[in-house]
Specification:
Elements (H helix, E strand, L loop, with lengths): L36 E5 L11 H9 L4 E8 L5 E3 L4 E4 L2 E4 L5 H7 L5 H8 L6 E6 L5 H10 L6 E5 L14 E6 L4 H9 L4 E4 L6 H10 L3 E4 L6 H9 L4 E4 L2 H8 L1
Parallel strand pairs: 1-2, 1-11, 2-6, 6-7, 7-8, 8-9, 9-10, 10-11
Antiparallel strand pairs: 2-3, 4-5
Helix pairs in contact: 7-8
Length: 256
């Protein structure tokens, strides 16, 4: 797939913005021959609030090829972007599953899934990774994705194979998350017709696992939890299919 150029595909009024500035400088190390697609983790979380409108815009503006966002189900059956199962307010903790979307938005600035997809559906050649943080929500999430005609540009990701059971008959890409790269992870994906694997850590095994995944027609990306510049460079050096990073601008510059 053709890589997005920096600031390409964002001319619509819904997401028009000025170029964002970054303090990180690009090191002298060059990553050669990398086709890895750059995915902004929770938007652009090294620079902006996780799962926020500003974070999503930051990822788009950085030249990234996609964005990863986290989804929880509210008590009224709607979906809000947040990593943790709770939201901290001045009054204390709000468990997302026990509160309506309106209650949450009244107490805290949070995006709904529909608000996020409304913006992202206007961005060309951009992949959206939807990380299912609540259980048994895949089919409901896919129905919302369909409303925005985004089945071809979305990847539904989760930690357990069983989360994909309700969407096995739907033509949408899926990804299995794990802590470590392993051939067993590839086998789990293969046995359950999952399209990609996403180990969290770089290690000496990553290159071998990418090769094994490709032999089994499965794509392999990664996210290094510390997400230091060294981690990004080490990951890119073995040419994963995609790289999920808090610093998409840095990764973009390394391979361009």
């Amino acid at each position: 797939m053709k890589r997005r150029k920096l600031l390409s595909g964002i001319g619509t009024s819904a997401i028009s913005m000025s170029i964002l500035k970054y303090s990180s400088s690009i090191s002298e190390i060059t990553i050669k021959n990398s086709d890895s697609r750059i995915i902004g983790h929770r938007g652009c979380s090294a620079y902006k609030k996780d799962n926020s409108l500003e974070g999503i815009k930051c990822a788009i503006n950085s030249g990234a090829d996609g964005v990863e966002i986290d989804i929880h189900k509210t008590s009224d059956g709607k979906f809000v972007l947040n990593h943790d199962p709770h939201i901290i307010t001045r009054e204390g903790f709000m468990l997302i599953r026990n509160n309506t979307l309106e209650d949450i938005k009244n107490k805290k600035d949070r995006l709904s899934l529909e608000e996020a997809l409304h913006i992202l559906s206007n961005v060309d050649n951009f992949t959206v990774y939807l990380d299912l943080k609540s259980t048994n929500i895949a089919s409901n999430v896919v129905e919302i994705v369909k409303k925005y005609n985004m089945l071809d540009s979305v990847v539904i990701i989760a930690w357990l194979e069983s989360e994909f059971d309700s969407i096995k008959d739907i033509d949408v890409n899926t990804g299995l998350i794990s802590y470590y790269p392993s051939t067993n992870l590839v086998e789990r994906a293969k046995d359950n017709n999952i399209d990609s694997i996403i180990p969290h850590y770089t290690s000496s095994k990553l290159k071998h696992v990418i090769q094994y995944a490709h032999e089994n027609e499965i794509s392999c990306g990664y996210w290094a939890i510390s997400d230091s510049e060294n981690d990004i460079e080490n990951g890119l050096s073995v040419n994963p299919d995609f790289t999920i990073t808090n610093k998409p601008r840095y990764a973009y510059e390394k391979i361009n």
